[in-house]
Amino acid sequence: MTDTTTDPTTQPVDIARTYEVRTYGCQMNVHDSERLTGLLEDAGYAPAAEGSTPDVVVFNTCAVRENADNKLYGNLGHLAPTKKQHPGMQIAVGGCLAQKDRGEIVKRAPWVDVVFGTHNIGSLPALLDRARHNEQAQVEILESLEVFPSTLPTKRESAYAGWVSISVGCNNTCTFCIVPSLRGKEKDRRPGEILAEIEALVAEGALEVTLLGQNVNTYGVEFGDRLAFGKLLRSCGAIDGLERVRFTSPHPAAFTDDVLDAMAETPNVMPSLHMPLQSGSDRVLKGMRRSYRSRRFLDIIDSVRARIPDAAITTDIIVGFPGETEEDFQATLDVVREARFASAFTFQYSQRPGTPAADLPDQLPKAVVQERYVRLVALQDEISWAENRAQEGRRLDVLVAEGEGRKDDATHRLSGRAADNRLVHFAVPAHALATGDVPRPGDVATVEVTYGAPHHLVADAALTGGSYAVRRTRAGDAWQARQEAPSTPAGVGLGMPRVGPPVVTPVVQGCR
């Protein structure tokens, strides 16, 4: 409940209440946080200045892994004394964990004011007002989507790249995954609405969009067009000024030739593919209710590389699913060796109440899962390093980004993503640094790779007279215009990646 020692309604009406959004989980949550930010600002809230105490803290949560619960309740505990010291402060919890735990959240953390689910994020401002007026916690969870989230106000955190939802929910029944019960059945947007949103983003300066869905290549199932996703990719190719199109994530069982054709034949669809494997053991895949087998998965990889030779393919893998034997695990290692992924998001199986796998026998000891996990990571790191070393000497077009290089200030490099989504840290020649002619986020730099590290590429050729060129873009202009506008603190803080350009964020177990 809200601390009522001081009436929060006495705050002067001309002083906007401030907010901060903290986000955990997948790309869908990152995009939802952009909507939450837009909703709050549309309702008159202002982003809290860095280092200040917000009037409203919103947690946009993930429920896929066990530590998500621990992280949320730990953070709520840390906020309790802060709230006590700041009468009128409100705390809201939304997202997948809120959809799962519901009223249990205010029982465990009675200082929480609002709990809302995945189907009613648009209700947040009204719930905050109601909680303040009634001086009582408000818990509102809907069982199905009433309004597609993309119709809500959205504050885009990047001037040059944006997320675009094409569907929400999932019709699969993977035994390890809690997402369908929290996000609901698949709901698809109409193609015209999606394309209109993309065109609006491009008109504002964006060069890149990432199409989002729990299973993007089943897009169209709701309106009866099984070829809809391939058609959508081709339609994106016809949008003037849109230079890069990405999507995440497809399901191997629904990956069809028409989608591959669209990827190969549409110039602005980037040569990258994130496709979850989960396990290389057919027996484990069956237990997971993944409706493909390892040979089918590898055949898709072969087809993609035949049509798009430079494609970088990434994946998700779960280690330690109930009943997984050493033979099953070796089958996963075998697929990893054959597939040669550019990178992989690897997870130790997490037993989640409410999923069928949680009740399976033969749950593996933590020590066994950890040992296998270490072996898998070592193998994938070895492969990733070899694949990145093969990039040495190549010239790449890099979309310069904000926040990609944590060490850029120390190394005097800039960072961004190549067409295949590899992270590239590149040097700027001395004459450009001296004149201030440095590429901006949203500009495109053509650089030469000098070293392939396990998890990124380094392009320092410009320091010795090698390849280096910069194309200033509309997106860079849009970024610069934001910097020159009156200063407004960022309103969204993330527990994992920051809100901004769509980067490769860890795809949590069960979201695909």
Automatic annotation (TrEMBL):
The keyword rRNA-binding does not apply. InterPro entries: Elp3/MiaA/NifB-like_rSAM, Methylthiotransferase, Methylthiotransferase_CS, Methylthiotransferase_N, Methylthiotransferase_N_sf, MiaB_methiolase, rSAM, rSAM_horseshoe. Residues 17-133 form the MTTase N-terminal domain. GO terms for molecular function: tRNA-2-methylthio-N(6)-dimethylallyladenosine(37) synthase activity. Its EC number is 2.8.4.3. The keyword RNA-binding does not apply. [4Fe-4S] cluster 1 binds at C26, C62, C96. This is tRNA-2-methylthio-N(6)-dimethylallyladenosine synthase. It comes from Angustibacter luteus. The lineage of its organism: Bacteria, Bacillati, Actinomycetota, Actinomycetes, Kineosporiales.
